[in-house]
Design goal:
With 389 residues, this protein is of the alpha+beta class. Strands 1, 2, 3, 4, 5, 13, 14 and 15 form an eight-stranded antiparallel sheet that branches.
Length: 389
Amino acid sequence: MPFAIICNMDVQGTVASGLEAVRDAFVANFETQNEVGASVAATVDGEPVVDLWGGSATYDHGEGEWEEDTITNVWSTTKTMAALTCLVLADRGELDLYEPIATYWPEFAANGKEQIATRHVLSHTAGLSGWDEPLVPDDYLDHDKLVRLHAAQAPWWEPGSQSGYHAISQGYLLGEVVKRVDGRSLGTFFAEEIAGPLDADFHIGTPAEHDPRIAHIIPPPSGKLDAAESDDPNSVVVRTLTNPTTSAEMALRPEWRRRESPAANGHGNARSVARIHTATANGGSAFGKQILSTDGVERIFDEQIESTDLVLGVPQRLGMGFGLPSETVPLPNPRTCFWGGWGGSLALIDCDAHISFSYTMNRMDDSTLGDERGLNLLMALYGALMAAG
C-alpha cells in the first residue's frame, strides 16, 4: 500500500492509502476526547499500515512532545505479553497449561491448590485475585514475597468456576511459573525470546537507559481501578482492589519501572505492541521470525470461562490469556482476541483478517478494559478496511 506521511502540530507518522480515517479519528481524539499524548499502530497481513503518534508528554526531564520513540506504562496491556510468554513455552512443550502448577512449583499445592493449573491463572479463574496477608504498595516491588504468600494461601472461590480479575496478582503468579519452568524471569524470557527477535521496543522490567523517553502517565479522575460495587469488606472485589490500593502514580517511580510486574508494568508504545502481536495475527510468524506455531496460536481460543466477573462486574468470555468475542464484546471475526489496560490502552489481534492493532496514551481514563478513544480508532480501521474491500 502507498503511504502518506503525516506531520502537523498534533500528529506525526504514516498511514497507508485508504486508511486515512484512522488518522482522522486519531486527530479527533485530541479535539473531542481530551487526548494529551498518544500513539496508534496497526499491521495487516504482516505489514505495518498505521503508525501515528502525537500530542504532548511529561518526562523525567520536563515537558515535551510525544516523540516517535516515546514509551509509557501500558498497565494491563502487559498481560498480553505475559500470556504470549506462557504460550511460547507451551508451544515448545516446556509448559503444559492444563498441568497443575504444583508440578513446576511444589510449594503452590498448599491449602487446596493442588489442581490449579496455569490455564486458571491465564483466565482469571484461579481464585487468587488478591492476597490474604495485609500489604502495602511497596510490596508490589517484592516478587518473592508475593509469590510466597500466594503459595501458602487458599483460593477465594472454586478454581475454574468463575472469573475474578487477577488485576495485579496474575503477573506474579505467571512470573513464578515461567521462572520455575525456564529458569529465567518472565521479563528476561520475553526480552530474549519475543521482543528481541521481533525488534519490538517493549519492556517488562524497564532498564534505566529508557527513562528519558518514558512519558509520565496522567492518573484517572477517580484515581482507582474500575470494579463492581460492594460494601462488603470481605467481598472478592474489595479484597482484590484494596489490599493494597493501587495508585496510578506508582508508575512514576523508577523502582516500579525496574521491577517485573508482568500484569501491569510493561512499558511500550502502540508500534511495539502491534509489532509483537503481528506474529500472533499471522499464524505465529512476523518479520522473518517464527514465535509460535499455528497450533500454538490456536491455544488462545481454547475457551476457559464465560461468566460475570467477580471483580469487574461485567460479563467476560476468556480464552488463554485474552478476552474473546461475545454478546457483550461483539467483534467482526470469531478468531479475534484482545485485552486492554487501565486508563485506555488496547491490544487487539484478529487472526481471521490478520490484523494487529494497538493504542497507547498518557492520559488515563477510569476504564479498565479500553475506552472510547481506542474504540474510535479501531472502528475507523475496520471501517476503512471494509470500504477498501
